[in-house]
Amino acid sequence: MPPQGQSPPSWVLEESDAATDDKDVAVPVPPSAEKRKLDIVWRNVILFLLLHTGAVYGGYLFFTKAMWATKFFAIFLYLCSGLGITAGAHRLWAHKSYKARLPLRILLTLFNTMAFQDSVLDWARDHRMHHKYSETDADPHNATRGFFFSHVGWLLVRKHPQIKAKGHTIDMSDLCSDPVLRFQKKYYLTLMPIFCFILPTYIPTLWGESLWNAYFVAAIFRYCYVLNVTWLVNSAAHKWGDRPYDKNINPVETKPVSLVVFGEGFHNYHHVFPWDYKTAELGGYSLNITKLFIDTMAKIGWAYDLKSVSPDIVEKRVKRTGDGSHEVWGWDDKDVPPEQKAAATIINPEKTE
């Protein structure tokens, strides 16, 4: 529902005939959003208030009443449902940054259904729209309309007419041709309650947890937590941080978001190079659990054709449009020994002769 943008859950009232494109197009970013009349959907407001109230209570039970096995189970479901968004709907299907064999596509579709942020087809559609028309009225969660709007407010009001107007020309045939995604879309309203709420509530009772605790901890609290950390990619990752790859766009690099959303917070990089399966320049796993997952799947043969960007291309882009915060501009003749600069793979040409 982003993350990271992402589609609203099925119970959120929306105009569902908008579509998206899988090609990123440079769109001018307005300096600020004009004031717009908001057509509030009060049904959604009430539902989200009830959900978050239940989640706060579930969080209280998580820390005070739930059994340890239930807590670990809730964390496990958080990891699975999170990967259903980051490794599945986002990196695999929305951007096609790698390919997956049938077992992995089924697994990620299951994880995605558990996350309850609408079907992969709908999520990827909105996310492609977000990239193609980023920070315009055709962007479902246009960040120029403020933090609250880009975080959750876009789900509480009717979509801007531009989303529907721009969506009709978008081709989604590449994803519609996948029988796994068609199956999920067709039976979503049956599968989603089972994997998001019913099984997470029932399974903890097998080790003696109360039905009450299981429901509010493993189902409601876990679900709402995943929603909000995913939304941070739409809001915080478009507001607070550096722009080392392109200073002319809103998305930023924010490590705290990457920590809770499995590597999705390196957003300035991602909007510049959306086809990179890492969604980041970083090669390590400390803040990019999704990369670790995809790399593991590649080792067992379930993932293949992983796309990445060469360091040379990244360096050229940093020098051309970056804001100066990248390490390529970080060399200081007073502090760096000559032999270290000579051995470096990326050197600021303005600092060396």
Automatic annotation (TrEMBL):
Organism annotation: Choristoneura parallela (Spotted fireworm moth)
Gene Ontology biological process: unsaturated fatty acid biosynthetic process
Superkingdom: Eukaryota
Membrane topology label: Multi-pass membrane protein
InterPro entries, sorted: Acyl-CoA_DS (IPR015876), FA_desaturase_dom (IPR005804), FADS-1_CS (IPR001522)
Transmembrane domains' residue ranges: 45-63, 75-94, 187-207, 213-233
Biased composition (Basic and acidic residues): 328-338
UniProt key word Hydrolase: no
PANTHER family per UniProt: ACYL-COA DESATURASE, DESATURASE 1, ISOFORM A-RELATED
GO molecular function, one term: iron ion binding
All residue ranges annotated as the Fatty acid desaturase domain in the record: 68-274
Chain spans, region Disordered: 1-20, 328-353
Entry keywords, A to Z: Fatty acid biosynthesis, Fatty acid metabolism, Iron, Lipid biosynthesis, Lipid metabolism, Membrane, Metal-binding, Oxidoreductase, Transmembrane, Transmembrane helix
Family designation: Belongs to the fatty acid desaturase type 1 family.
Cofactor dependence: Fe(2+)
Iron in keyword set: yes
Domain text: The histidine box domains are involved in binding the catalytic metal ions.
Primary location class: membrane
CDD domains per the UniProt record, alphabetical: Delta9-FADS-like (cd03505)
Compartments (UniProt record): Membrane
GO cellular component: endoplasmic reticulum membrane
Organism ancestry: Eukaryota, Metazoa, Ecdysozoa, Arthropoda, Hexapoda
Protein name: Z9-desaturase SFWG4A
